[in-house]
Every structure is written in C-alpha cells, then in structure tokens.
Design brief:
By secondary structure, the protein is mostly helical. It contains 4 helices and 2 strands.
Length: 216
C-alpha cells in the first residue's frame, strides 16, 4: 500500500507481464486480477488527482447548453414558429386604431427582417465562400496536427513497450538465475545440515563405544 500524498491510497502491484507466466498457468489468479480490474473500472466516484475535472460545455450560454441537452436526449427539433412571419390583419371588425397600429408595427418589423436577411444573403454570397475555404483549411490543418500527434504518441508507446519488454526479459533472466542460485545454496545448506546430523550421530556412537570399551 502506497500513499501518494493524496486523499486516496492506491495499491501497487509489481509484476513483469512480459516475463511472468503466472496469469497463464494459474487460472484462479487470472480470475482474481480480472475481478480487481472490473472493480476499479466500476469505481466512478473516485477520480485520480491527475485527472482534470469534468469540463462543462456552454456554461455561460444557456441557449446552446439547452440545445446540447436536447441533442443528447435525442429529442426532435422543435417546429419553427411561422406566426412571426405572417401579416395578419385585425381580427375585430370594425378594427380600432390600436389594432391597426399593432398590425402596422408587425408589418414594419417583417419588412426590416426581410431587409436584414437580404443584407446577410448578400454578405454571405460575397464573403462566404472564402470564409468557408479558410475554415476548412484551418480544420484540415488541425486534423493533420492531431493525426501527427497521435502517430508520435503511438511511436512513443511502442518504444516504451519495447524498452519495458527488453528490460523485463533481462531482469526476469537475472531473477531466474538468482532463484536457481538460491535453490542451490539452500540445497547445499540442507546437505551440510544432514552431514552434521550424521556426524553428530556417528560421534555419539563412537563416544558410547568408547565408554563401553573403557568399562570393559
């Protein structure tokens, strides 16, 4: 158990996955490891301190945030309100001056809206194609940079895994050699202890024989 000076404590499991074959030879160990991995994958309430906090999109833009929520919930797009584009006449007959004033104000608003749309259409036809090309160029450049960064990361991962494999293979061979040496030394110690026991028994037998001969 190791504490990284954080609110959480993490267990460190040291192993040489490129060299150790315990997971292949011991199914019960594989089941235990898979169980631990599944348990950790299911712990969404504990986040590693190095993981950045969740980023909230459109925090200061409620309209875009509401639209994002609608898209995420797979709700259909609301139908357009066409009443604002109509020019209804006063419904009451005879109409009052106030009714005609409201209808006239609505007509002025519709006229200004159409004038604004015409201006935007003209601006789009004039500057839209170039702006679109520039945007596409920027997106392509960003995509190429991201792909290049991804390839570099893949190469780094491959290099790290290659170094880990070479290191673990080398260390594993050293560990195996040391284990064999350890077994040989233990075997030698056991043989020496057995020889000592045999010598002590022989010494005791000779001592007993000497006593017997002296008494005779």
């Amino acid at each position: 158990m190791s504490d990284f000076a954080t609110p959480y404590a993490y267990e460190i499991f040291d192993s040489l996955p490129y060299f150790d074959k315990d997971l292949e030879t011991l199914p019960e160990l594989r089941d235990k490891v898979d169980s631990e991995i599944a348990k950790e994958m299911g712990r969404r309430d504990i986040i590693h301190p190095k993981v950045p906090p969740e980023f909230e999109l459109f925090k200061s833009q409620p309209l875009l945030k509401a639209e994002l929520t609608r898209v995420e919930s797979h709700k259909p797009f609301p139908s357009l309100d066409t009443l604002r584009y109509q020019l209804p006449a006063p419904t009451s007959m005879p109409a009052t001056d106030e009714d005609w004033k409201k209808a006239l104000d609505n007509a002025h608003a519709q006229l200004e809206h159409q004038r604004t749309r015409q201006t935007n259409t003209t601006l789009l036809q004039t500057y839209g194609p170039n702006a679109w090309r520039i945007q596409n160029y920027l997106l392509e450049s960003t995509a190429k940079n991201a792909e290049q960064a991804l390839e570099e990361l893949k190469e780094q991962i491959t290099s790290v895994n290659r170094e880990r494999k070479n290191m673990q293979t080398k260390v594993g061979e050293q560990i195996t050699s040391l284990e064999h040496r350890y077994v040989e030394l233990i075997s030698s110690v056991l043989q020496i202890e057995m020889a000592n026991v045999a010598l002590e028994a022989e010494l005791e037998r000779l001592t007993t024989r000497e006593v017997e001969l002296s008494g005779a």
